[in-house]
Amino acid sequence: MPALMWLGLLLVPWRPWSTREHLEADPAAGQAFDFSDVTVLIPARNEGDVLGVTLAGLQAQGKGLQVIVVDDQSTDATASIAAAFPGTRVISGQPLPEGWAGKLWALEQGSKQVRTPLTLLLDADIQLRPGMLATLVAHKRREQRQLVSLMADLRRTSFWDRLLLPVFVYYFKLLYPFALSNSKSRLVAAAAGGCILVDTEVLQRIGAFASLRDALIDDCTLARQVKQSGYRTWLGLSRDVVSLRPYGSLGSIHQMVARSAFTQLGYSTLLLLAVTAVFALAYGAPLALLAAPQVWPLALTAWLAMTASYLPMLRYYRMSPLWALLLPLSATLYLAMTWSSAIRYWRGVRSQWKGRVYNA
Question: Where are the transmembrane segments (predicted)?
Answer without folding.
Answer: 265-283, 295-317, 323-346
